[in-house]
Structure formats: structure tokens, C-alpha cells
């Protein structure tokens, strides 16, 4: 009895819950999807997706639309909710682009979101022929320089053309100042805005060829990330007290206080270089060595409160101030000093020796004097005796020669006389 009495109410309660759940499920409605989803080009790289509202939507539904984009089947995590029946997006011509949208009731309505409605924009041309490695730099807020390389499957004679557009231009513009160097395409076009401008529109860039087999490519650039200032000019150096004052001209194209600077200076090799950051167009370096030569250069950089760019300008031409002793002079001096000292020492020693002889002359030895005197006399007498004997012999020899000559000549005269007789 007790078990049956307990089980009956439980069964009734369970049945009641199932009936309520079924009624709730039956009351929930799925919204109808939007209709006539389509797209159109606003500009070269901008699409406008449009659709019509769903039919038979309850007036209690606060209707809005959820939309999403996929590139080559990869969600872009850019889902948006809006009451508008359109969405403007950038276009990716080099890849398949899918767009989907559905209708929803906002703020706790019992209706379920509708099914997704999709459409896609397929790329044209042969894969691998689109331009690659597109890179752009906005020089000094005056002109843009873009470079790119041809696709791996593009022909060598492919002639790419760059078009650009930004909000403020009525129509897209063609870049005419282009060149090709070692397979790298380069194009330059003017791009400037008033100095008072605080925000800059995105730049849409399209690169394509007239041939249908070449696939076009689109890119949208935030110009504040591409800013590169010009090299600082009119750099001057001067000495002030015990320091060096450096100054350079400010840019005419940048708004005030939108550029910072980096100064590098050294007294010798680059390993001794020091860098300092300054906010204005001048700097003073104190406590310098008056006997050293200093070399300075400077470059500009955009301030983060004005631009998102990380690009520095090129360094200015290096300028020097001060005098530095010639290293050749020190080298010669290093070699000459020891040589001069050595020669001076030798001369001094010789001079001291002669001076000693003059001051303290040597005392002659009497024995040597006597020996020299008597030895010279003996030698003279002996030499004289020898000379006499030699002279005597010479006289005898001469007399004999004369006598022989006389004896020899006498017979000849006699014979000649006899013949005459």
C-alpha cells in the first residue's frame, strides 16, 4: 500500500514535467533566414554584402543579423552583430572568400536563430601567378613606395600594374612610376594629407595584370604603420663651455611633436659609440675631452602617440668636431726618443773619456823613454852601415859595367880602321 501510494504521485509528476517540456519545445520557433544574399564592389578591394530581411517575424523579436567570413575555409574570427542589412568588408582576390549571415532575436526571445545563408567569391586566374611579398613604406608622409615579386608560376614577361584607393578619392588611381630591378617590381605614388590630420584612412592596393590567367591580389594597409621619416638635415655642431651642442632642422611634413630622435656619437671606433634619445631637434653633450675628436650623427623616429610605425629614418651624414693628435706623430716620436737617448749616451761617454785624458794626462814611463832613445840610435847606426856596404857594392857593379862597355867597343873600332887602310 505505502509503496504504491508513493509511486503513483511520482509517476504523475514525471508525466507532468514531460508534458510541460513538450509544450515549451513546441512553442519555440526557428527564425526564417535572410534572403537574396549578394555582394558588389564598392572600390577595388572593398565588398558590400547585402541581404533582405526574413519574412513572418514576430513583432516581439528584436531582429538583428550575425555575419561571419571564412578565407579558404578558415574562420577569420570577425563575426559581427548588426541591425543593418549589409556589411562592408575587404576583399581577398587571391583566395576563396565565403560570407555567411543569419537572423537572430536579441535579448532573450524564445525564437531560435535561423539557418546560415552563404555565398562565396572565387578567385580567378592560375594559382601561383599573383604578386607576392608586397611591402610598402610611406616616406616622410609625402609618397608611398611599394615593392613586390612575381608569382612562382607567372611568366617572365608578366607586367603587373598597381592601383590604389583610400577614402577621399572619388576613383581608384593607377601607379605609373614603376620599375623592375632583378625581378623585383617597384612603384612610387604621391600620398599626403594635411598636417592637422589625426587619423588616416586605410590604403587599398590592387596588383593585377591585364591577362586573364594572372591572378589579382588585394591588400589593405594602415598607413600609420608604414611611416618612415626623412633623414634630418642641416646638422650643426658647436662647443659650449665644456660640452658640445648639436642641432638639426625639423621636418616640414610632420605635425609638431610627432617625431623623436636618436643621436649617436663616438671618439674613436664604433665600439665606443654611445646613443641617446631626445624629444627635440637639439641636444647638448656635457663633460667632453677637449683633446679628443667627436663624431656625431642623428636619425628620426615616429612617436607612438602619433604613429604605429617602427621605422627609423636613415642616419644623417656624420659630422666631427674637435682635434685629435696624429697617431703617426706619436709613432715616430716613440721610435725617435730611444734612438736619441742612445746616441746621446754614446756621445757623452766619448766626450767624458776625452775630457778625462785632458784633465788627467798619463805619466810617461822613464824606462820606456830610455829604451826608445837607445834603441833608435842602434837602429840608425846599423842602418847606416848597411847603406854604406850597399852603396859600395853598387859602385863596384857600375864600374864593372862601364869597363865592360869600353872593352867591348874597342875591337870594333880597330877592325874598321884596318879595313880603311
Can you walk me through this structure?
The chain is of the alpha+beta class and 421 residues long. 27% of the residues lie in helices and 33% in strands. Strands 3, 4, 5, 7 and 8 form a 5-stranded antiparallel beta sheet that branches. Strands 13-14-10-9-17 form a 5-stranded mixed beta sheet, with no helix packed on it. Strand 20 (259-266) and strand 21 form a beta hairpin. The N and C termini lie far apart (222 Å). The protein is elongated, with a radius of gyration of 57 Å.
What share of the residues does DSSP label as strand, in percent? 25-35%
Question: What is the number of helices?
Answer: 3
Unreliable residue stretches: 1-26, 402-421
Task: Note the main sheet.
Answer: 5 strands, antiparallel
* Mean of all residue-level pLDDT scores: 79
C-alpha Rg (nearest Å): 57 Å
Query: How many β strands by DSSP?
Result: 24
Instruction: Give the overall form.
Output: elongated
Query: H/E order of the elements?
Result: HEEEEEEEEEEEEEEEEEEEEEEEEHH
Q: Kindly, what is the distance between the CA atoms of the first and last residues, rounded to a whole number of angstroms?
A: 222 Å
Secondary-structure-derived class: alpha+beta
Helical fraction equals: 25-40%
Amino acid at each position: 500500500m505505502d509503496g504504491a501510494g508513493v509511486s503513483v504521485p511520482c509517476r504523475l509528476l514525471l508525466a507532468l514535467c514531460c508534458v510541460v517540456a513538450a509544450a515549451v519545445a513546441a512553442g519555440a520557433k526557428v527564425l526564417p533566414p535572410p534572403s537574396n544574399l549578394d555582394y558588389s564592389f564598392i572600390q577595388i578591394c572593398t565588398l558590400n554584402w547585402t541581404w533582405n530581411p526574413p519574412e513572418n517575424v514576430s513583432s516581439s523579436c528584436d531582429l538583428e543579423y550575425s555575419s561571419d567570413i571564412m578565407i579558404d575555409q578558415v574562420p577569420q574570427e570577425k563575426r559581427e552583430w548588426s541591425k543593418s542589412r549589409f556589411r562592408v568588408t575587404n576583399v581577398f582576390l587571391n583566395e576563396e572568400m565565403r560570407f555567411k549571415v543569419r537572423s537572430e532575436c536579441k535579448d532573450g526571445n524564445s525564437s531560435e536563430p535561423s539557418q546560415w545563408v552563404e555565398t562565396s567569391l572565387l578567385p580567378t586566374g592560375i594559382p601561383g601567378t599573383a604578386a607576392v611579398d608586397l611591402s610598402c613604406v610611406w616616406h616622410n608622409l609625402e609618397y608611398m613606395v611599394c615593392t613586390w615579386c612575381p608569382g612562382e608560376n607567372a611568366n617572365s614577361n608578366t607586367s603587373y600594374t598597381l592601383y590604389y584607393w583610400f577614402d577621399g578619392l572619388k576613383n581608384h588611381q593607377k601607379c605609373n612610376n614603376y620599375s623592375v630591378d632583378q625581378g623585383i617590381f617597384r612603384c612610387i605614388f604621391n600620398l599626403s594629407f594635411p598636417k592637422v590630420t589625426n587619423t588616416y584612412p586605410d590604403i587599398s592596393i590592387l596588383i593585377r595584370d591585364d591577362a586573364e590567367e594572372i591572378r589579382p591580389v588585394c591588400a589593405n594597409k594602415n598607413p600609420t604603420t608604414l611611416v618612415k621619416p626623412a633623414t634630418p638635415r642641416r646638422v650643426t655642431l658647436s662647443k659650449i663651455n665644456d660640452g658640445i651642442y648639436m642641432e638639426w632642422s625639423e621636418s616640414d611634413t610632420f605635425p609638431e611633436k610627432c617625431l623623436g630622435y636618436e643621436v649617436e656619437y663616438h671618439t674613436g671606433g664604433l665600439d665606443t659609440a654611445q646613443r641617446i634619445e631626445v624629444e627635440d631637434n637639439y641636444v647638448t653633450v656635457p663633460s667632453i675631452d677637449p683633446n679628443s675628436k667627436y663624431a656625431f650623427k642623428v636619425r628620426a623616429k615616429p612617436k607612438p602617440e602619433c604613429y604605429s610605425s617602427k621605422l627609423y629614418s636613415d642616419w644623417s651624414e656624420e659630422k666631427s668636431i674637435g682635434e685629435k693628435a696624429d697617431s703617426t706623430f706619436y709613432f715616430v716620436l716613440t721610435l725617435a726618443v730611444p734612438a736619441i737617448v742612445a746616441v746621446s749616451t754614446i756621445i757623452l761617454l766619448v766626450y767624458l773619456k776625452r775630457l778625462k785624458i785632458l784633465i788627467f794626462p798619463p805619466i810617461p814611463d822613464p824606462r820606456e823613454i830610455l829604451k826608445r832613445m837607445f834603441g833608435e840610435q842602434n837602429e840608425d847606426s846599423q842602418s847606416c852601415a848597411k847603406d854604406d856596404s850597399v852603396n859600395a857594392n853598387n859602385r863596384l857593379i857600375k864600374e864593372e859595367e862601364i869597363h865592360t862597355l869600353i872593352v867591348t867597343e874597342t875591337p870594333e873600332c880597330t877592325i874598321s880602321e884596318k879595313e880603311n887602310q
